[in-house]
Specification:
CATH architecture of the largest domain: Alpha-Beta Complex
Number of strands: 19
Number of helices: 14
CATH topology of the largest domain: Spore Coat Polysaccharide Biosynthesis Protein SpsA, Chain A
Helix content: 40-55%
Shape: elongated
Oligomer: single chain
Largest sheet: 10 strands, mixed
CATH class of the largest domain: Alpha Beta
Strand content: 15-25%
Length: 480
């Protein structure tokens, strides 16, 4: 048995709390890795959150073989409430909140207890790695424990890193050990939301702790791309993330922590919102979320209005700026251009590789093919009546795309230099002709934003409603 400051470590009980909801697929591996820990003085509290599969039966089978297993059953109230229920029943000096689809190094509890005891810590955080369930391979977990941000001292608190205390680690609980008395003293509880129910607990604990220590070993293997995981329902319940951030801001203020930790909170919230807005793939949920951000959330959370250097990540800063300034369609078009550019760069790289492998002829054919400007057809509603402003390279290509798709009605094409075009395919009208036309949108078909802004100003002076004027930031993609 090892000793820490005169105490035999195995005399210290550790409570391991695991919420379970329809987790039978991975539950056995999870339980085996917990019960085979080198540190034996543990109680393992499984809280079955109203599972409809055989999760409870699996836990009961282990309970019959190992007296350290405790099973608590409740109706489905989500993981946050399950963790609270488990903690209320816990009797250990230290507590961990693990996930039922993860698995753990056999030295996890031992190394965490040792770090807690040695440093009289309130929280210990370990490194972790991911396991992609689809790809069947391990990978790095971005932001799990940012070693480069850790203070040089072994034991630290918010006083040492007030501007980025929340950036030291991700807002999940499964890679951390807590002193149970600390949780009770600070009245820390998990939220009852369907998703995003652990970050409030984690951030408040980081803000309240007087002694935090990092264990630099990878001790948790976290499964990703798990179809049954609650993460897969996250975009449908996007409002849970806002509720979490709003409650966190409120709690930090009521606890007197917000002034010191404001910048760290702003960056935590800004990154969460950026990740969410860039990862929602369902049109309905994205539209709801984007409208909510522009109408309420970014202002209420106080995450905009700071100089660019206030933000840790330039991409987050730029995304927030776009949300603040752009309509939903403009935002999406800007994202499409960025993604298209990424694809274009990837395609070029692949072609260069093919050339290096002796495929010079194929590469030359690709380079000789003409480029074209693709209209983002999917972003426009069916049956929309549109006017194209500009018949240069962008406008002529968009004209072909709109005609080909048949989804919209092209009312006319206008250009300030209308008399310079000689084409039988389409009549080019002077700009003044839009005054008497019936249309839903005017599409500014130019490449440069500055030019688009000038045209927008001209159209606005003609008393055209701003919401009818659209400019899509185009990307040169594809071939004629």
């Amino acid at each position: 048995m090892s000793r820490t400051y005169g105490v035999i470590m195995d005399e210290i009980k550790v409570s391991v709390i695991v919420p379970v909801y329809n987790g039978e697929t991975y539950l056995e591996e999870c339980m085996e890795s917990i019960l085979s820990q080198s540190y034996k003085n543990i109680e393992v509290i499984f809280v079955d959150d109203g599972s409809t599969d055989r999760s409870a039966e699996r836990i009961q089978s282990f309970q019959e073989r190992d007296h350290r297993v405790v099973l608590i059953r409740q109706t489905n109230q989500y993981a946050g409430i399950a963790r609270n229920r488990g903690f209320d029943a816990a009797t250990g000096k230290y507590v961990m909140f693990l996930d039922a689809d993860d698995y753990f190094d056999s030295s996890l509890v031992e190394k965490m207890v040792s770090a807690m005891q040695r440093n009289h810590a309130d929280i210990a955080i370990c490194k972790s790695r991911g396991y992609d369930e689809k790809a069947k391979k391990e990978h790095q977990l971005a932001g799990a424990l940012n070693l480069e941000l850790l203070p040089e001292k072994e034991v630290f608190s918010k006083e040492d890193v007030p501007e980025y205390i929340f950036q030291l680690t991700a807002g999940w609980a499964w890679d951390k050990m807590y002193r149970a008395g600390f949780i009770r003293e600070k009245n820390l509880r998990f939220q009852g939301t369907r998703v995003a129910n652990d970050e409030l607990f984690v951030d408040l604990s980081l803000g309240e702790a007087e002694a935090i220590v990092a264990v630099r070993d990878e001790l948790v293997i976290h499964r990703t791309n798990v179809i049954t995981s609650i993460e897969y329902t996250r975009e449908r319940f996007w409002h849970c993330g806002y509720e979490m951030l709003a409650e966190e801001k409120k709690e930090l203020e009521s606890r007197g922590l917000f002034p010191m930790l404001k910048r760290s909170f702003v960056n935590r919230a800004a990154k969460y919102i950026t990740w969410n807005v860039c990862s929602i793939t369902t049109a309905e949920y994205f539209s709801e979320y984007y409208s909510f951000l522009t109408e309420r959330a970014i202002e209420e959370l106080e995450i905009v209005g700071y100089p660019s250097e206030y933000y840790d990540d330039p991409f987050v800063c730029e995304t927030l700026h776009r949300i603040e300034k752009l309509s939903e369609i403009e935002f999406l078009c800007t994202r499409i251009r960025e993604l298209n550019q990424t694809v274009a760069e990837r395609d070029l790289y692949v072609q260069e590789l093919l050339s290096d492998m002796g495929c010079l002829q194929e590469r030359m054919r690709w380079m000789k093919e003409g480029k074209r400007w693709i209209f983002p057809d999917s972003l426009m509603p069916d049956g929309a009546r549109v006017v194209i402003y500009g018949f240069g390279d962008v406008g002529s290509d968009w004209f072909e795309d709109i005609q080909r798709s048949g989804r919209m009605k092209l009312v006319m094409v206008v250009d300030k230099n209308y008399d310079r075009f000689e084409t039988d395919a389409v009549k080019i009208h002077p700009v003044e002709d839009v005054d008497g036309a019936e249309y839903d949108y005017i599409l500014i078909a130019v490449n440069e934003k500055e030019t688009a802004d000038e045209i927008r100003g001209v159209l606005t002076e003609r008393k055209i409603a701003p919401e009818k004027i659209l400019w899509f930031d185009p990307s040169e993609r594809g071939t004629k």
